[in-house]
Amino acid sequence: MSFLIDGPWLYATGRTYAALAPPDWTQERAAALGAATMAGFWATSISLYANRRWTRPIWHLCRARSGRDWMINSGVFRVDTARAGRATHTAAAVLFALYPVALIAGYRRGRR
């Protein structure tokens, strides 16, 4: 998971949920599935950003220097994540807050 791919991945997940959901699916069921999805994404992505030890195998497989390096740079950019300050952390918080928007947008588009 990284900021570069999480938004599109969540959007695609929402579209997939909509495509596979039976026609009689209630909003409550959709909301519960969405909440579980968000919990998984946030738990992993925020833990990566915070460089939690359990995420080392993930970022190591991605050839990143740390979880934060993977979340921000995704192997594409060259931001010095060791010097991340208030602006970087604020931008990350905004991106994390937008995760549900991508999931919901995908679900709504898929239900049309």
Notes on the structure:
This protein is an all-alpha fold and 112 residues long. It has one domain. It is built from 5 helices and no strands. It has helices at 3-20, 27-49, 56-61, 67-73, 86-111. Helix 1 (3-20) runs antiparallel to helix 2. The mean pLDDT is 92.
Concise description?
By secondary structure, the chain is an all-alpha fold.
Q: Which structural class is indicated by helix and strand composition?
A: mainly alpha
Task: Classify the helix fraction into a percent range.
Answer: over 70%
Instruction: Give the count of helical stretches.
Output: 5
Please state the CA-atom Rg, rounded to the nearest Å: 15 Å
Helix and strand run: HHHHH
The beta-strand count equals 0
Largest sheet: none
| C-alpha termini separation | 28 Å
Q: What portion of residues belong to β-strands?
A: under 5%
The number of domains is: 1
- Indicate the overall shape: elongated
Write the layout of secondary structure elements.
Elements: H1 3-20, H2 27-49, H3 56-61, H4 67-73, H5 86-111
Helix pairs in contact: 1-2, 1-5, 2-4, 2-5
Name its key features.
112 residues; 5 helices; mainly alpha; elongated; 71% helix
